[in-house]
Every structure is written in structure tokens, then in C-alpha cells.
Amino acid sequence: MSGLKRMMLGAIAAGLMAGVAPAKADFWSDAGKDLAGVTIRGVSESTPPSNYVKDVLAPAFTKATGINVEFEATSWDQMYDKAIKDMEANTGIYDFVYIEQDAVYGYLGRDFLVDLTKFIAENPKLKAPDYDPANFTTFANYFKGKDGDLFGVPMEAFIKVYLYRKDLFSDPEVLAAFKAKYNRDLAPAKTHAEYTEIADFFTQWGKDKGIELWGSTVQANTGHPSSWYEYVESVAPTFGVYNWGIDASNNYAATVEHGGKMNSPEAKAALQFWLDLLKNAPPESTASTWDEVAATFGAGRAAQGLVYGENAAWIATDETKSKVVGKVGVALPPVEAGVMEAAEAGTGYIGYYDGGAFGIPHSSKNKAAAALFLQYIAQPSVQADWAVAGSRITLQGTYDDPKVVAQDAKTDGYYTLMRDQGKLFAGAPPYPFHNQLRETVAPIFYQAITGELSASDALDQMATASEAELTKLGYRK
Amino acid sequence: MRSQTVGWLFLAPTLLILFVFGVWPFVYVTVISFFHWNSFAADPTMRFAGLDNYRELMFDKGFLMALWNTLKFGVFAVVSQVILGYLLAQLFMKNFPFKGFFRTVHTLPLMIAPVAVGATWRLMTVPGLGPIPYYLDKWFGYEFLISRYVGQAFMTTVIMDIWHWTPLVTLTLLAALSSMPKEPFEQAQIDGANRVQTFWYVTLPMLKPAILSAVFIRLMDAMRTVDEVWMLTGGGPGSATRYIGLYIWRVVFPKTDYGYGSAMSLITLYLTIVMCWLLYAGLVARRDLKRPE
Question: What is the pLDDT, as a whole number, of residue B155?
Fold first, then answer.
């Protein structure tokens, strides 16, 4: 190589380094200069995306800025308990908190959170060059206030999908046996009747073959609200019962008598369908929350099931945790007639679009450092690895990243499904009383799972109790 | 005069702590119990409710069910602990090989935090993983599923409590047995009393204060049990193990119904005091009243 060429290459390299990399590095170290040594504390639910923040992003942020991050990833109940107590008492223990999509309405109603749009606008020195709220997917809309300002930086977003065992669904012996029994080809269920048939078939198949295989997962914990959530968020909508069966526009009516749908025939059919699945579910189902359902599927104990998408990646690709790597198929949940059409028309939905954001409580004592951290995790450059690890996507551009495209192929197109069909799913209804209503009706719901109450009686009691509670809370007049 | 001042000065820290951590919270809870106060209500401010919260309690099926469950739990657990505790205390009064080792092992559960006890029992009973359902099914063909069968869940919480707290009763009774004078037993022997008579007329009356102490402590603990059961069953299945402490916790924290939860706490405290008083009156005071005769 001639001296001239060497000089030119050196100049180009120096230009690139000076023009690109240092600019980013400079911003984080410059912004962190006055805050170096500060420790910010956050609390979140222990999920694959949160654990990635704890293990990867938080240390990287500390390295870039000198700001320490104490990240507490705990159980869902504890996370809520700690965050709400801190914000209510204004103690300022946490500088950022996890805001699950269904909790944001309550938090905004109580004015717990800092308006991030305004805060960053008022502190231009804190504005990271790579942070652009326009990059977020539409999921960010759930975290906007009435004037469109953002109150939380989305950190995870996923859909609850229908996972099935692709290896079993393509096994010639299984296909032949299924065809012989039901006189139709085995394929992922499109309707509830098909789903039940498949569940029956595989439970019997497991018994006949002497293997630990059941027809379906069921998130039916009898002492934890996750069971109630599976019913209202993922099962009832597929029967055309939306927003928990409560009509907010009609004085928060829940009973059919007053115009609600919580105890409607569709709701009762939905609950009966779900309860009937228990006979085709592994014995741990009545002790399963969202985590255990994913573990059950990952252990190869169920042929199909509705599983939170945040677990899709590890179930499909992580051999250290999952026994079904390379055997996972992804599809849309089964629905009743007319429900898919309603979802496509935007008048209904077929399942749960879940996720959460990190927000800064007013009580935080380190708002500037926390704002930097939230922008750091919203950078496009950190998204792909995070999406691969936690099957979550919050920026539009992440879908096209080569790493995500490769992971998409390994997960049977989970990411493509989320991008293309995500519009058919919806987040939780915009109620500020989620916990209050859930705690009122869930104990009745558990009694339906144990068989102490029939599906019909349980829903009748739940609808009546809901209206009473909403009246007590002052929402229903 | 000076000695009085010094006395009060020495007492001051204790009184201060008692006021801050005992009296003030009690007064605060009492005041709140007369208000409607839910921070996620349409009107999140405190509104005077009079006796509404107390009236609502009387018709709250969930509260009454939790209370009944707690009483059942308390009676089953405490009676079993006293019987087992006595038998173990008698055993440890005798000499046998490795007695010291067994006595140490026997007290180990006392050193474990209730949350850890709950978590351990959960691991032992979770279907598909725990040894208890596995071996019950393998050896006896018995389906053990505490997340589905209410009776099994209830009895498992009782057994867990017995496992955790029987050593406390054993140690209490062991101390009492060790400090008993020999003379009454020798006298009973001379009088020709058999073992049952000796137990009934000599041992039991002398053990009564220790038994009562153990019963009071354990009964009060049972009335406020939360953490172990929370870890094991979460209060389920259905309402089978939703004991009063757990119910109050759910009302106060996830549901944020502070006024109603406070009323519930006070009523529970009142019922606990009444129960202990009745127990005391039935077992001790009546005998004391008879004594002058």
C-alpha cells in the first residue's frame, strides 16, 4: 500500500471516528459529567425484556455516563406494590418505575408521572441525539396524556399468541391418527371448537404413548389474578366480549340487565370453553401464572397454548431453557365467527397487546439522570439485541434489523406476525380502577376454576359485584 | 422529686417508641376506619363515612368467610401443635441416643423465615416438580393438587404451620416440664395414681400456665398469618386459604381501600382480644374464682 493511500485511508477512518462514534460517546459522557456517581433506582417486573435491561443495558449506561443504576426486577405483584407505595407516599425511592400498559390510566389519573416530552424540552442539554419519540411503534400511544405528551418510554411490547408444537403438527403418525379420528387435516385451530378437538386429541395421544403431553396450556392459577387476566384479555375477546364486558359509555354497566356483557351468553360460553380446557391441561395449570405457562410450553408438556409473546424467543431458540427449540409454530388465536372481521374493521380485537414503559415518578430525586437512562434504552442502536433476547419491539425500525429478521425465522415469524397482525390485538381498557375491580371479581373467578361455582353463576356474581364496586368507587352513578 | 425525673428520663425512649410505633398507628387506623378513602376512586380524597365501613363488614361474605377460615385454621393448627409439642417435650425429657442432635434439628424450622417456609412448601407441593404430589401419586395413586382441591390446600397450610411452629410449643413445655418439682409426682406415686391420673391431676395443672402462654402466642400468630400462606397458595384455591390477614392485605394494598381495610383490621384485633380473654376466663379466671372456697 502506497503512502498516499495509507494517508487517505487514515484520514477517512479518522473522519468517520470523529464524525460518528465520538459524537455519541461524547453526548453520554458529557451529559453524565455533572451526574457521575449518582445512583438511580428502578423497579420492574422480572420478565425477559426487564432482565435484559438489568443485565446488559443498565451496566452499559453506567459505563457510558458514570451514572449507577440499581435495577430491581421482582414479581408482578411486588413491583406494583412497591411502585405505588413509593409514588403515593412521595418517598422518592425509585427514579423510574415500570408502567404496565393497563396501569398507565391509574397512574396518569393520580398524576404520579413526569411529562417526559415537557421535561426533555425544558432541559435541552439532556436530549440525546438518537432519541426520537417518532421512532416508537403505535404502542407508545398508550403512554401519552391527553395533549399527546409522552409519560413513559416503551420498553417492551408484544402480543399474546397461539403457540403450537410444529413438530407434532407435522408428524405423519399424528396427522394420520388425527385425520382418522376427526376426518379433517390437523392444522392450527381457527375456531374454539377446533382448538378443543386438538386439545382432546393430544391429551389422549400423550396418555396412549405414555408421555407427559397435554392438549393445551391454561393460565388458571386459583389464587393469582393471572387466571382472570387470561380470561378477560385473551379468551373473552375471541368470543366478542371486549373491555372485560363493561360498557364505559353506558354508566360502566357490567350486567346484561344494565347493558353490560360481563355475564352475557357470549361471556358464559367463553368461560365454559376455557374451564373445559382444564381437563386437557397439565396438572400444574391451576398453579400457573404467565411465567409457568411459558415454562410448561418450553418443557414440551403442552401441544398448544396462548403464551405471552415476551417468552416466544427463548421458548423457540434457547436450548438452555427450552426443550422445544426449533419445534415452535406461531399463529393467531382461535376466534368465534365474526370476531376476526370485527377486529379487522377496528371494532373489536382478538387478544392482548401487552407491554410496558418506564416512567419517572414526580417523587424521583434524580429526574435528570433517570431521563438520560430512559433515552439510552430508547436508542435504535440497542434495540435489535434486546428484541432478540426478549421478543419485544418498541421501535418501528427494529423489525428490519438483520438480527431480528434472523430471529424471526427461528421463531416461525413471531415478529412478522406482531408487525403485520398486531393491529388485531389491543391493550387493556382505559380504566383507572384495574386493581380495584380485579380484586373484587377475581376471588369469585377462582371459585369457578375450582368448581365451587358454575361458569354462569360466577359471571352473574362477578357482574353484580363489579357494578357494586364501581358504584362504591364513584364511577358508576 | 429528682429520682422521679431521672426515672421518667430513663422511661422516655421506651415511651417514645411505644407512642410512635404503637399508639399513633393505632389511633391513625382508628380514625381512617371512619372514612371512605380509596386513592383510585373517582374522588380519591377522604370522605367521612361514619359507621358505614363497619356496617359493610357485617355483610361482607368475603370477610366472614376469611374469618371463618382463620378460626378453623387457628383451632386445627394450635390444638395439633399443643398435643405434638407436649409429646415431643416428654420425649426430650427422656434420655436416648443422639438426643442433643435431634433436639437441635427439631428446632431448626423456628429459625427459618416464614416466607422461606412458604416457598419451600410450595416447591414441595407444586405439581410436576414437587416430591409430595409425585410420591403420593406413585405410591398410593393419590392425586394431590393443592391448587385445585380446597380441602387439600387448607390441610397443607395447617400442616405447614404445625411443622413450622410446633418446636416453639415444645421448647416452652420442655422448659416448664424441666422446672417442675419432683415432690408432687412422688406423692402421686405413693398415693397409687396411674399415668393418666398423674397426667390429669398433677402434670396438666402445673403445665397450664405454659400451655396457656403457648396457646395465646400461637393463636394470635395464627390470626395474623400472611406470608407463609401467601407464598404457598396465594389464598387459593378459590377462598379456601384466604385467611383474614391475607384478605386485609388485599383490601388495603392492591385494592387501596384504606378506610374499609382499617375497619377490618380493628375488628380483627378486637376479635383476637375477645378470643384470648374468653380463653383466659374459661381456663384460668374461673379456677381462680373458685379458689377461695
Answer: 97
pLDDT, residue B286, reads 60
pTM score of the predicted model: 0.87
Hey, is the C-beta of B271 within 8 angstroms of any chain A C-beta?
no
CB contact under 8 A, A283 and B257: no
CB atoms within 10 A of CB B23: 11
Contact A285, A302 (CB under 8 A): no
Which B positions 204-243 lie with beta carbon below 8 A of chain A? 233-242
Nearest CA in chain A to B241: A223
B279 and B176 within one domain: no
* CATH number for the segment(s) A23-157+354-424: 3.40.190.10
Task: Count CB pairs under 8 A between chains A and B.
Answer: 103
CATH code of the domain covering residue B175? 1.10.3720.10
- What's the gap in Å between the CA of A256 and the closest CA on chain B? 23
- Picking from A286, A301, A438, the nearest residue to B147 by CB comes out as A286
Nearest by Cα to B90 from B162, B174, B169:
B174
Does the model's ipTM exceed the 0.95 cut?
no
What value, to the nearest 5°, has the Cα angle with vertex A159 and ends A158 and A164? 120
Q: How far is CA A334 from the centre of its chain?
A: 19
Q: Tell me which residues of chain A have a pLDDT lower than 70.
A: 1-25
B274 and B231 fall within a common domain: no
